[in-house]
Every structure is written in C-alpha cells, then in structure tokens.
Amino acid sequence: QERFRSDTMEKMVWGIIRESKGEAEFADAAWEGSQLGASCFSIYWDIKKQMPIFKSLDPSGVLVVRGLDDPFSFQRFYRFWCVPKSTFQAEYRDSIFRGEPVKVGEASSDEVTIVQCSDKNKMIRFALEDGIGLEEWDHNYGFVPYTVIPNIGPQRRIWGWADYEFTRSLIQYLPQLLGREADILRAVANGSYLEKGTGQSPESLNVALQKGGVIPSKRDSSIEPIQPPDVPAFADAHRESVMQYIKMLGFAPDAAWGDGAAGSGSDRGLQMQPLAELSRMKQLNWSVGLSRLFAMAFEMIEGQQVGTARYRGKTKKGSRRSPFNLLI
Asked: Model confidence over 18-37: pLDDT tens digits?
C-alpha cells in the first residue's frame, strides 16, 4: 500500500509542476535567489484545473511575519507591486468591496502600489497610497500559502545571501583599480607634446601628428613628447591579488576557471571542493524549500477531499504491468 501511495503522490507532484509551468517558475526563482538572496513562491487552488498551482514571486516586493517556533510557518505575508493607474482602473472599475463599488476614481497618482496581505485563513488586497479596498476573500487553507527559500545561509535567517555578497566590497573596488589603469592608457594613447620654437600652431601640429606629414620648423626648434605617468610596478601583482580574493570569497578557485596548476585529477578535485560545498549548500536549501511548497500542495488536496478518494494506476517492473487500486 505504501508503495502505491508513493507512486500516486509522485504523479500528483509531476502534474502540479506541469500545470504550473514549473521549469520556467523554478528557473525564475533560482535566478532571483542568486541575485537577491532568496526565492519566493505563492501557491493557490485552481478551481478550473482542480489542483494546486504555484508561481514564483519577486522577493524584493515581499515582507513576512515569521512564525514563533517554525520561522517558515508565517503568520502573515505581504506582497507589493506597482501598476499603471489606467490598468488599475480597468481591472477594478466594476468591482465590489464590502458591499460598495471600488473607488477607482480616488487613485491620486499615475502609478498605483497594490498590497496583498494573507494570513492563515483569508486574503485582502488594497491600494497603498489612497487606502482603497479592492478584494477580500477566505481561502481557509489553514496556513499562509507562500514560502521563501534562502539562497545561501542558515534556514532561520529566511532571507539568505546573494551569490555576490561575499565579494561585494572587492567587486566595487575592482572597477576603480581598472579605471585608474584605463586613465593611464588613455594618457598614453592621446599623449601631449611640448613645442619649442617651431612656429606652428597647435592645430596644424595636431593634424600632422594624427595623419602624418612634414612639419616645417625653425633652427634649434623641436617637438618633444611629455612623458605620461607610468603604471606602478606593483599594479599587476595588486590586480592579481584582488582577483584571487574574489575567487576565494566567491568559492570559485582557479580550477573553476580552467586555470591553476593542478598536477592530477585529485589536485583539481581538491581545488574544486569549495565550489562543490557552496553548490551543495544551495541545493540543500532548495530541496527543503520545495518540500515545504509541495507539503502545502498536498494539504490543499486533502482539504478538498470529502471522505475517501480512490486512485487507480499501473506500476511497471520490466515488461510487467501491475494495476493498483488505492483508497485514501
């Protein structure tokens, strides 16, 4: 029975992923996690499809009231996003909120910030700037239908670290270092000259130096280049040190870049160990977070059941097919 139950639950999971366009949603959430430090998902019961559907959210427009014992058992979840005034008015022009028409004409700005607040039993949506009520409904899930997955760091922080945060200061310093070198190269490429008694105008000298030509001059006159500032002798070593620290703090040693002096496969494996540990940490957080998401999905399915439900299917073992009939 337990084997059949697992097979049925696996089919449910793949059905939810397919109907939610899960591959795209997972890719969006993973990208936002690497850039912003966390991935966010919402989940709801789709009446037409008769199954839970999940969507990825922008974590920069989210606030949570964490749970007491389990920080991911949220007490409330707030979403913020902005829409043009015309879109807002078109969407809610004929809507009713608590027995009265939605006052779309009271929106004062060209862009309206929508706020959606969810607790464990209901949701409410309103316009932030003008306090215009928009929607209110009971979902009665018994939990807040959102979850957050930290990218890197302990689960208790909820909002993890982005991939670049370890190297943020160095990344900000590197353009200054390279910019100084670019200034020196620019000075060399467009160098200055000292004209001594040739009697030529700066414009004619400039044209001759750029295009080539003969410059008439007087006795004892000359044109001498002004020595540009040299790149300091330690500049190359300094730049290499900065890059080395970026690689170290980013868990990406030389071996990850195809460089390094690995003498064997074992040496290369040791060089790649920090990157492997970082990837493993991210995968663990991702696995636990998706477990929370699909636990909500199964709770929604159980909440829709009245009495028992019968599931039929077939298991494959080699060339044999064994039908099963499971009552849950």
From this structure: 999 999 999 999 999 988 99
